[in-house]
Amino acid sequence: MKLTRHIFVFSILLSSAMLAAENEDHLTYGIPAGSTKTGPHTTRDPEKQECLYFAPGPEKTRENLVAIELMDHEVVVKRELLKDGKKHGIQREWHPNGRPKLEAPYREGSMEGTFKEWNENGDLVGQYSMSKGTGVVKVYDSTGRLLREDHYKNNERDGLRMERLTEIISLTWSKGGHLLGKGCDFYENGELATIGFFSNNGQPNGPVVTFSRDGTRTRASWHLSGQEVSEAQYAAVALKDPSLPRYYPDLSEYKYRVGEDMREWLEKYRTMPPVKIPLQFNQEGEPALAR
Questions:
Q1: Angle, CA 221 vertex, CA 219 and CA 226 arms, to 5°
Q2: Which of 123, 240, 253, 288 has the fewest C-beta atoms lying within 10 Å of its C-beta?
Q3: Is the dihedral of CA 255, 174, 287, 89 positive or negative?
Q4: For 171-179, which contacts have Cβ atoms below 8 Å and span 24 or more sequence positions?
Q5: Pairwise CA distance, residues 7 & 103, whole Å
Q6: Handedness of CA 99, 289, 188, 173 (dihedral sign)
Q7: Is 254 left (phi over 0), alpha (psi -120 to 50) or beta?
Q8: Is the pLDDT of residue 13 over 50?
Q9: Integer CA distances (angstroms), 41 to 45, 50, 93, 100, 218, in order
Q10: Which residue has the higher pLDDT, 231 or 285?
């Protein structure tokens, strides 16, 4: 009886070990031995070239591609690994100075594992985990300010996206990889820079209104299902279709369409304390704050 129990336990442990090894094979995957390299080939960018690697065999088709290397002035800046036509393995990017820029592990086309990003100085500015294409991306600038936050589900943007641009904080929402609802850009002082609206398929669907920093000047474009239309056309359609954002002849009215939830998110990101760069992590796995 004891022998049977020991065999059973051993079988479970062996199966678990084999499954773990199978689940992590993408972390050691590389260009298969004997692959054929072609190139460098020209690209749309005259300053960049690419080399293609094909699986061993006579055929050199897109289906047999196992790797693509992008070169900038003869220096490799990106390597994409493929298996059965899907990203598989650690995808890598480098800065023009040769330092690492990105490590992105994929398994059979899905983001899987610990992603890392570095700035041009070689400092770690992003480290986040993905499981089955689901997770939260957080990347910081050289001062430790949060530069970008992205939520992913099943390898598609799904949820809030914050991006800090030059003197601008941009907040948008996505569902299934498409922009959705309302998106706003704010100046660093909290004043509204731009507000726009999107349909369920991510197309502009409503006004896109831009304000000057002091709020005295505005301009707008008007959209219906991704097509730009005249202000008069939009006003007429919006009057009959309550699902569209309401038309206001006074563009300053759109400042009041931002909403409290958007304001709360903005305040959170505006007041978020900086973290240490290079990134360091506390016992809870969160980035350590700068002191």
A1: 155
A2: 240
A3: negative
A4: 171/262, 171/265, 171/266, 171/269, 174/202, 175/200, 177/202, 178/202
A5: 40
A6: positive
A7: alpha
A8: no
A9: 11, 5, 19, 23, 46
A10: 231
Provide the whole-model pTM: 0.87
| CA contacts within 13 A on the Cβ side of 67 | 26
Sign of the Cα pseudo-torsion (58, 61, 66, 72, in order): positive
Q: How far apart are CA 103 and CA 21, in angstroms?
A: 20
Taking alpha carbons only, the member of 130, 120, 112, 163 closest to residue 278 is 120
- Whether 40 contacts 53, CB under 8 Å: no
β-pairing, 192-198 with 113-118?
unpaired
Q: Where are the domains of the chain?
A: 26-122, 155-275
Rounded distance between C-alpha atoms, residue 166 and residue 169, angstroms? 8
Say if CB 173 and CB 183 are below 8 A apart: yes
Res 72: pLDDT: 92
